[in-house]
Amino acid sequence: MTASARLLIVGPQGSGKGTQGVLVAEAFGIPVVSTGDIFRANIKAGTELGQQVTAIMEAGDLVPDELTSAIVRDRLSQDDAANGFLLDGYPRNTAQVAHLDEFLGERGETLDAVILLDVPREESLERLRLRAIEQGRADDTAEAIAKRLDIYEQETAPIIEVYAERGIVDRIDGVGSLEAITERIGAALAARGLAQRV
Ligand code: AMP
């Protein structure tokens, strides 16, 4: 059993990956590294990076790979990520997978598991509709949602194949209560010998 874990959580928008990611990371005592959250925090703080990505995010497009990968490299180089981390929203295409492989390879590391949250399209659209009302996210407009769904299907879904070939994908049924889904994820990770801290 290892005491740390290098994880990635993937799923379409509205799959609940943000919520589950936080719970899983807490259980393992590792930080969540969410590129969407990093971008949103920079927009809120009015940084140069924030100004660079505002229009891109509002349109539902992807921030350029080099920029995104540089930010992730920086974040993963911080002390609290030395023994593990949970990536949410990165990598999002095969170019970013290559960037991450290169970075982890330099450190002699690999991802331990990729949690794929499976949620039917109608269910995720309904959750997004609620999120738009509750959180008022600037990129939860119908147009941006449709754009992100297209990008997910065309660019992000292929990364699952890449990781599946490495035998590290755990496909988790993402429908059910919050607790039930968290338990399914914990069980899948335990089956890989990944031990939770709590
Ligand atoms: P998320 O919170 O993961 O839904 O991300 C919100 C938005 O941030 C996306 O629609 C993109 O505009 C941008 N973004 C987040 N992660 C990435 C990434 N890995 N590559 C490029 N753009 C990203």
Describe this protein's structure.
The protein is an alpha/beta fold. It has helices spanning 17-28, 35-45, 48-58, 65-76, 94-106, 121-135, 142-165, 178-191; strands at residues 6-10, 32-34, 85-88, 113-118, 169-173. The chain has a single domain (5-35, 81-191), classed as P-loop containing nucleotide triphosphate hydrolases (Rossmann fold). The chain contains eight helices and five strands; from the N terminus they run βαβαααβαβααβα. A five-stranded parallel β-sheet has the order 2-3-1-4-5, sandwiched between helices. The mean pLDDT is 94. It is found in: Cytoplasm.
Q: How many structural units, i.e. domains?
A: 1
Number of strands: 5
Tell me the β content.
5-15%
Low-confidence stretches: none
CATH superfamily: P-loop containing nucleotide triphosphate hydrolases
CATH class: Alpha Beta
- Oligomerization status of the protein chains: single chain
Number of helices: 8
Strand and helix order: EHEHHHEHEHHEH
Distance between the termini: 14 Å
Major sheet attributes = 5 strands, parallel
Q: Would you identify the CATH architecture?
A: 3-Layer(aba) Sandwich
Distinct ligands, ions and cofactors found in the model: adenosine monophosphate
Class from helix and strand fractions: alpha/beta
Shape: globular
Average pLDDT over all residues = 94
Radius of gyration: 16 Å
Binding site for AMP: 35, 40, 61-63, 89-92, 96, 137, 148
EC number: 2.7.4.3
Catalytic activity: AMP + ATP = 2 ADP
Protein name: Adenylate kinase
